[in-house]
Request: fold
Amino acid sequence: MQLSRLGEFTLLLVATLTIMVGAVVAPGLNSIASALDFDAHAPLLITLPALGAILFAPLFGKLIDAIGARTTLLWSLLGYFVLGAGGMLIYGPVMVIADRILLGGFAVGTMAAGTALISQWYTGKARLSMIARQGMAIEFGGVVFLFFGGHLSEMSWRVPFMLYALAFICVLLTLLTVPKRNPDAASSGATPPAGKARSIGPVMIYTVLAMSLFFTLFTTLPGLLADFRFTETQTGYLLSLISLVAVFTAMVMPKVVGRFSENTTLMLGFVSFACAHILFAISTMPQMLILAALCAGIGFGFTIPLLNHATVERSTDQNRGKNLSLFGIAVFSGQFMTSFFEFVPLPVSETLLACAGVGILCAIQLKARNSLATA
Reply:
């Protein structure tokens, strides 16, 4: 039994919600934070959901293993919709913090359950290809949400929150297109062989670092570009360019892995991140900013989808939910780490250069090792 094309589309559409949490508010961050009486710490609107994901990921991992990925996904999508769209109705630091943290919890549930369903319906090269497409979907969602987020925030600070209604559409599509039956049980009695139980520690470490390097750009660039007199719409364009490049990079990632190796591909991703941060730190011309955006997109496409696949391949049927929740914790931990950059007494350019140094160190470490297992 195979998942239909529409079912595959549904799982890819669900994947776009991962980046929507922050992308919806990123272009109009300053005006939205001001309207919510949260302008003292505006970047936290983007990063607080990551804290919620860290706190609630273990719970959703247990739910996936206990009640199934499909049921967990449906409840996660409903919570995501209510808390996301409801963000336009709250006011004040306490309500904003509570809403964004709980939203992050349902976001990681959506992410982990969606990937668990992919791992159930696909195996081998088809699984790597589907997870690569999942990475493409995440970043294509970034293109769309950042593009429209910039335009909609100029209409009204409330309007971007309406994009969260996509989660409810995903609920309906999941009910209609993703069968309840376990695909393994639906086959001719044959169960795909369980993956070898290998350490995922190095995978988690590189995931945290890759996401922190990626999300640093989303939290620092709105302010940096405002100094260059970029409008919110123009900021949305540049951020969406990063996501668009990541889409195409994720598309070719499986071929790069096949031609070279998992380790080399990941190393190239961190080198690209380092180049992006250096260019953003020293750039004063639009052409250089565009080149930096290209490097950032390549960095994401060669790291996060690959690390996601590495997590699945290192899991068994018994611990897949747990491991995917750990991957969710790693992803959102990387995002949340960028919250503290607001309190670092350094200019933005120096913060970006420090992040470039982290990317270079990761690349050197990967170069010195033969595989992620020994990283």
In short: Residues 274 and 359 are 5 Å apart (CA to CA). The first helix runs from residue 5 to 15. The chain has 16 helices and no strands. The domain at 5-187+197-374 is CATH 1.20.1250.20 (Growth Hormone; Chain: A;).
